[in-house]
C-alpha cells in the first residue's frame, strides 16, 4: 500500500492522539503530536520568563529552542517530547502549560517556527499528525483528513480522568474551563484557526468504542490509498 499523509484535527480532548497512535501502530506510520511542540515552546517561555507580548523577545527565544521527538523502539507510536535535549513529557502535560499554550500558539512567529518543522517531518509521507491546523495549513494536500468531534461533557470527563490519575488536586470545573477557553482561543485566533478543512471527513466519536473508531478510519485509509 502506498504511504500517505493522514491529518487529524479537532477540539481539545476529542481522542485525536488515541486514534493517531492506533493508526500509526496498524499502518507502521510515524505519529507526530503537533500539540506537544506548542506545549514545549510554552514551557520554555514560562521557564525562561519570555515576554511573549514582545515579538522581538519571541523571535530571539525561538532561536534557542530545539525540539525533538524520541520514539520508543518497541512501540514507535509512543513519542516523548524533548526540549533542548531534555525529556519534558510530564511537564508539558501540566495545567501550568495548558493554561497558557493557546495564547502562545496564537503568535505568528511561534506558528511559523512549528509549522516549518512539521512540514519537514511529512516529506517522506507515512505519517499521522494530529493538531488544530494540520489539514488546513500544515498539509493542505494530505490524502486523508479527519476532523474529530465529541460531546463537550464527554471530552471534559475524559481529560479530567487523565489528569486526575496524575494529580489528585485537579477539579472537574478547572478542566472544563481550560478546555472551553482553549477551544475558544484556538477557533478564534487570526492565524490558522481551528477549522474543518473542506475535504476533511467528520468523525464524532462520542458513542464509538476505540475499536469502532479505528475500523472506520482504516476503511478511509484504504479508500485513500
Ligand atoms: O493537542 P493539545 O491539546 O496537546 O494542544 C495544545 C494546544 O496547542 C492547543 O490547545 C492549541 O492551542 C495548540 N495547537 C495548535 N495547533 C496545533 C496543535 C496544537 O495551535 N496544530
Provide structural commentary.
The structure is a single chain. The chain has helices at residues 16-27, 34-47, 55-62, 89-92, 95-98, 101-105, 108-121, 134-138, 152-164, 172-188, 210-224, and strands spanning 5-10, 30-33, 67-71, 79-83, 86-87, 127-131, 144-149, 201-204. Helix 1 (16-27) crosses helix 11 (210-224). It has a single domain (7-215), classed as Rossmann fold. The protein has a 5-stranded parallel beta sheet with strand order 2-6-1-7-8. It has a 3-stranded antiparallel beta sheet with strand order 3-4-5, covered by helices on one side. The mean pLDDT is 94. It is 49% helix and 16% strand. With 225 residues, the protein is an alpha/beta fold. A hairpin with a 2-residue loop joins strand 4 and strand 5 (86-87). The chain has 11 helices and 8 strands. The longest helix has 17 residues, at 172-188. The structure holds cytidine-5'-monophosphate (C5P). Cytidine-5'-monophosphate binds at residues 12, 34-35, 38-39, 101-102, 105, 131-134, 182, 186.
CATH class: Alpha Beta
Q: What name goes with the CATH superfamily?
A: P-loop containing nucleotide triphosphate hydrolases
Q: What count of helical segments does DSSP give? A: 11
Q: How many structural domains? A: 1
**How big is the Rg?**
17 Å
The CATH topology corresponds to: Rossmann fold
Which percent range fits the helix content? 40-55%
* Multimeric status of the protein: single chain
Q: What is the mean predicted local confidence, pLDDT?
A: 94
Sequence stretches where pLDDT stays below 50 over 5 or more residues: none
- The arrangement of helices and strands along the chain is EHEHHEEEHHHHEHEHHEH
- What's the total count of β strands? 8
Main location: cytoplasm
Catalytic activity: dCMP + ATP = dCDP + ADP; CMP + ATP = CDP + ADP
Subcellular location: Cytoplasm
Family: Belongs to the cytidylate kinase family. Type 1 subfamily.
Amino acid at each position: 500500500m502506498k504511504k500517505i499523509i493522514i491529518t487529524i484535527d479537532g477540539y481539545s480532548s476529542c481522542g485525536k492522539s488515541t486514534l493517531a497512535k492506533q493508526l500509526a501502530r496498524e499502518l507502521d506510520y510515524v505519529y507526530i503530536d503537533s500539540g506537544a511542540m506548542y506545549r514545549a515552546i510554552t514551557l520554555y517561555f514560562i521557564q525562561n520568563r519570555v515576554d511573549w507580548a514582545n515579538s522581538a523577545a519571541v523571535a530571539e527565544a525561538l532561536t534557542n529552542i530545539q525540539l525533538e521527538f524520541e520514539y520508543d523502539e518497541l512501540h514507535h507510536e509512543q513519542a516523548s517530547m524533548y526540549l533542548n535535549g531534555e525529556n519534558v513529557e510530564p511537564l508539558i502535560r501540566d495545567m501550568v502549560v495548558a493554561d497558557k499554550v493557546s495564547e502562545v500558539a496564537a503568535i505568528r512567529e511561534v506558528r511559523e517556527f512549528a509549522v516549518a518543522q512539521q512540514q519537514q517531518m511529512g516529506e517522506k509521507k507515512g505519517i499521522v499528525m494530529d493538531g488544530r491546523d494540520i489539514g488546513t495549513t500544515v498539509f493542505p494536500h494530505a490524502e486523508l483528513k479527519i476532523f474529530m468531534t465529541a460531546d463537550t461533557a464527554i471530552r471534559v470527563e475524559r481529560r479530567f480522568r487523565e489528569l486526575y490519575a496524575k494529580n489528585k488536586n485537579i477539579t472537574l470545573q478547572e478542566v472544563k474551563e481550560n478546555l472551553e477557553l482553549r477551544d475558544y482561543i484556538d477557533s478564534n485566533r487570526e492565524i490558522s484557526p481551528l477549522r474543518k478543512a473542506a475535504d476533511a471527513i467528520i468523525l464524532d466519536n462520542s458513542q464509538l468504542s476505540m475499536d469502532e473508531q479505528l475500523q472506520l478510519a482504516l476503511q478511509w485509509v484504504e479508500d485513500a490509498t
